[in-house]
Write a structure and sequence with these properties.
Blueprint (H helix, E strand, L loop, with lengths): L7 H17 L6 H8 L3 H5 L5 H24 L5 H18 L3 H9 L1 H28 L9 H16 L11 H15 L3 H12 L2
Length: 207
């Protein structure tokens, strides 16, 4: 993977490619077409990206950092764990709505290095994040005290694989955003205490 330090131009190109992948898919354009869309010289491009594999990997790293920054901004708006989890779910729904369904399968099948980064992100970032929110929610009596935090965290994360399984939820039949909502939002409500349910209801009322 290219280890060149991120410059302003480099960061700008990563964001432009992220948006390009979001609109047209990861595999729709060749590397030459991407360079043309970016309106940069091949020499400039290849000074930052070795090949398309490296480009996709760097875009994934860039996108995961963007998501972490957006999560921090969301958490700044509330301190209660129930609403923080719901905000994360809303953010996830929005992300899925903005992403072509085929992108996940394309990355998994064609760009294993990038896919492995995404999976590692779940283990090193998403798992501790959700685990911590559940634990905090129990301490604040917003989540039920009888839940198995490690198991519930694992279930929440494993449900991502279920959501992304196009054999189970083919995009031609199911809205990915609605699948996400049906699996996650109702599950979270089911592990809330009465106080947590009140917080959740107040959150839903503002949507």
């Amino acid at each position: 993977m290219n280890r060149t330090p991120i410059t302003t131009l480099h960061h700008t190109l990563l964001e432009e490619v992220r948006l390009l992948f979001q609109r047209e898919g990861v595999s729709a354009l060749s590397l030459e077409q991407i360079i043309q869309r970016l309106n940069v010289s091949p020499a400039t491009f290849h000074g930052m990206f070795e090949d398309k594999d490296d480009l996709v990997t760097q875009v994934v790293v860039h996108d995961l950092e963007r998501q972490r920054n957006e999560h921090a901004a969301l958490f700044a708006s509330t301190e209660n764990p129930v609403e923080r989890i719901l905000l994360l779910l809303q953010h996830g729904i929005h992300e899925i709505q903005q992403t072509p369904s085929a992108n996940f399968a394309e990355v998994q099948q064609e760009y294993p290095a990038a896919w492995n980064l995404m999976m590692d992100h779940l283990v090193t970032y998403s798992y501790p994040q959700i685990h911590g929110l559940l634990n905090d929610g129990i301490l604040r009596k917003q989540f039920r005290g009888d839940i198995n935090i490690e198991l519930v965290t694992k279930i929440i994360l494993e449900q991502i694989n279920l959501i992304l399984n196009t054999d189970i939820f083919p995009p031609s039949r199911y809205s990915l955003a609605e699948v996400f909502r049906s699996i996650y939002l109702y599950y979270i409500r089911g592990i809330c205490t009465e106080e947590g349910m009140h917080l959740a209801a107040s959150h839903f009322a503002r949507l």
